[in-house]
Amino acid sequence: MADSDKSVMKVDIAASDRPIWSGEATYVVVPATNGAMGILPDHEPILSLLTEGKLVVTEPSGNKHSFLVRDGFVSFDSNTVTVAVEHSSQEEYGFPEEADGSPKGKA
User: Fold this and answer.
1) What is the DSSP letter of 43?
2) Which domain CATH number covers 15?
3) For the range 68-71, what are the long-range contacts, defined as Cβ-Cβ under 8 Å and sequence gap of 24 or more?
4) Tens of pLDDT along 37-48?
5) How do beta strands 9-15 and 80-89 pair?
6) What's the Cα-to-Cα distance from 91 to each of 2, 69, 76, rounded to whole Å?
7) Per the structure, how many domains does the chain have?
8) In a domain? residue 98
9) Which of 25, 26, 62, 95 makes the best surface tag, with the fewest CB within 10 Å?
10) The domain containing residue 58 runs over which residues?
11) pLDDT average, residue stretch 73-100
12) Taking Cα atoms as reference points, which of 86, 31, 81, 34 lies closest to residue 55?
């Protein structure tokens, strides 16, 4: 049994009109209506509304992806995080990645 398999979650982030980012993560922070909420692997199942704010995904490599999101929800069950939002933009936070998570000429 590989412990490393349990230390990651599958993450899918989508806007109302397109997929935004998909991959594995060790930590996700979402802007829940009651404040920022951190999600780790093996968290209890959740379903929460999101408000406007910063969503941050930390990959197993330590790379972070940040998105400005507005209005949506997050669900977590069986180490799968699903985020559906009305709007998302990565550029507004000045990050070099496209909104779909692909790098822009990463050095």
Assistant:
1) P
2) 2.60.15.10
3) 68/92, 68/93, 69/30, 69/31
4) 999 999 999 999
5) parallel
6) 37, 11, 26
7) 1
8) no
9) 62
10) 9-91
11) 76
12) 31
